[in-house]
Design brief:
Largest sheet: 16 strands, mixed
Strand content: 25-35%
Structural class: mainly beta
Shape: globular
Bound molecules: 2-acetamido-2-deoxy-beta-D-glucopyranose
Distance between the termini: 71 Å
Number of helices: 8
Number of strands: 34
Pfam family, one: CBM_1
Radius of gyration: 23 Å
Helix content: 10-25%
Enzyme class: hydrolase
Signal peptide: 1-17
Catalytic activity: Hydrolysis of (1->4)-beta-D-glucosidic linkages in cellulose and cellotetraose, releasing cellobiose from the non-reducing ends of the chains
Domain CBM1: 468-504
Length: 504
């Protein structure tokens, strides 16, 4: 009998599944960004789409919910397949329901939005190329730059900009059960192999679903969805980190139950992805005055800051370095150097990752799932740009901005100055509902094309090149470099590739 029903629903699924409904028209907010080459940048007209998980999910035939709060209606959703045939994702009221607004090249995400039907918490958006296709970025050998304003998000909140190896159509072609696709923000995956995703590979995640005990909007199902993740920016006004997370595979795959590993599973390290990553957080690497609110910090988080990330290729054509610069007040600020004994440098390299894992005594999952070279392979393939604002029901974001594990005095446990009691979701929702983050002025192109290494904003700025000698780890040359080519003593300007010379 079960087989008969399964066979029947598979048949229906082939015709009709994970539907779309149009009670609200899906109108993607426009967001412009810049594609750069050595001869300059040109504006691209893009748009953003909110992830499917945030959407109203109801019967295709009526306005009856398939999913409410943190529970599926099991009288409708009798199985993953049946649920996908009966239920649809609806269009989004971006500003009214989700607190998402755009203006020109700027995206604003508000933390709590009280809408007519619901109170929305946070959001996750993807950049689209057109209404049905995500914009795809191949990061290896290129540079990604954006401006961010974190002045209004503090302890416990995370305004994140990152890349994941999702399918460009949201999985619509690969999984016939998925009729919604990128237009409705489907196909999410990341290195935690999240199990709170409501539809995965064209079926619902109702089988085995357990509603969260402390999150009125979420639960965990029997399926998870995995793929490599490059966190360019996870931050609030206290701490920031950039973190590669490789996986065994290079594309999205589903996983089952606790075998998924990651945050949502009993054994964090049971899966095919690296949930920890190899992070560079200036505070965790020993520089406690590099990033924070006020002029006492090198990067002042009370002001907007430009964040530059370079995915540098070595002479072998493989990823050699993930480099970070900041630009603020017309000045280029090199990333802080690690001051932890045994971990050197100011960027994420294979050596940095190996040293960090050893010195901090962290798990070996980064290396187990491909390590730096595996991440290089993922970055050589197209990835989807994600921008989100979230809080953390699992560890209160303490891994980013406080001491974690709580009470630990081990090297690597101090990640930021937030109290270990901060970041409690219900406190944040009550105390800082109006918090928001903005991302703007996204630029992408070959190394050296998205920002002026002398800090000026206009490439034709006639101002004399900066003649002050460059600090340790700073840039001192390269094809598009117009700044100083001398290093402070005792460092030497060393060629890493045609576009990048560094004081080492
Ligand atoms: C959030 O903003 C709304 C609308 O401006 C205001 O009424 C409310 O008091 C604010 N809440 C807090 C906690 O600041």
């Amino acid at each position: 009998m079960y087989l008969t029903i399964a066979a029947l629903s598979a048949l229906i699924a082939a015709v009709k599944a994970q539907q779309v409904c149009t009670n609200t028209a899906e109108t993607h907010p426009k967001l412009t960004w810049s594609k750069c080459t050595t001869s300059g940048c040109t504006s691209v007209s893009g748009s953003v789409v909110v992830d499917a998980n945030w959407r109203w999910t109801h019967l295709t035939t009526s306005t009856t919910n398939c999913y409410t709060g943190n529970e599926w209606d099991e009288s409708i959703c009798t199985s993953n397949e049946v649920c996908a045939t009966k239920c649809c994702l609806d269009g989004a009221d971006y500003s009214g329901t989700y607190g998402v607004t755009t203006s020109g090249n700027q995206l604003n995400l508000k933390f709590v939005t009280v809408g007519p039907y619901s109170t929305n918490i946070g959001s996750r958006l993807y950049l689209l190329e057109d209404d049905n296709t995500y914009e795809m970025f191949t990061l290896l050998g290129n540079e990604f730059t954006f401006d961010v304003d974190v002045s209004d998000i503090s302890c416990g909140l995370n305004g994140a900009l990152y890349f994941v190896s999702m399918d460009e159509d949201g999985g619509k072609a690969k999984y016939t059960g998925n009729k919604a696709g990128a237009k409705y923000g489907t196909g999410y995956c990341d290195s935690q192999c999240p199990r709170d995703v409501k539809f995965i590979n064209g079926v619902a995640n109702v089988e085995g679903w357990v509603p969260s005990e402390d999150d009125i909007n979420a639960g965990i199902g029997g399926l998870g969805t995995c793929c490599p993740e490059m966190d360019i920016w996870e931050a609030n006004d206290i701490s920031t980190a950039y973190t590669p997370h490789p996986c065994d595979g290079l594309t999205q795959v589903s996983c089952n139950g606790d075998e998924c590993g990651g945050t949502y599973s009993a054994d964090r390290y049971a899966g095919t992805c690296d949930p920890d990553g190899c992070d560079f957080n200036p505070y965790r690497q020993g520089d406690k005055t590099f990033y924070g609110p006020g002029s006492g910090f090198d990067v002042d988080t009370t002001q907007k800051v430009t964040v530059v990330t370079q995915f540098i290729k070595g002479t072998d054509g493989k990823l050699s370095d993930i480099k970070r610069f900041y630009v603020q007040g017309g000045e280029v600020i090199a990333n802080s150097a690690s001051t932890i004994s045994g971990i050197s440098g100011n960027s994420v390299t294979a050596d940095y990752c190996a040293d960090q894992k050893q010195v901090f005594g962290d798990e070996g999952s980064f290396e187990d799932h491909g390590g730096f070279s595996g991440m290089g392979d993922a970055l050589a393939a197209p990835m989807v740009l994600v921008m989100s604002l979230w809080h953390d029901h699992y560890s209160h974001m303490l891994w980013l901005d406080s001491t974690y594990p709580v009470g630990s005095s081990a090297l690597g446990a101090a990640r930021g100055s937030c109290a270990t009691t901060s970041g409690v979701p219900s406190d944040l929702e009550k105390n800082v509902p109006n918090a928001s983050v903005s991302f703007s002025n996204i630029k992408f192109g070959p190394i050296g094309t998205t920002f002026n290494s002398d800090g000026s904003t206009d490439p034709t700025d006639p101002e004399d090149p900066e003649e002050d000698p460059v600090a340790h780890y700073g840039q001192c040359g390269g094809l598009t470099w117009t700044g100083s080519t001398t290093c402070v003593s005792p460092y030497t300007c060393t060629k890493l590739n045609d576009y990048y010379y560094q004081c080492l």
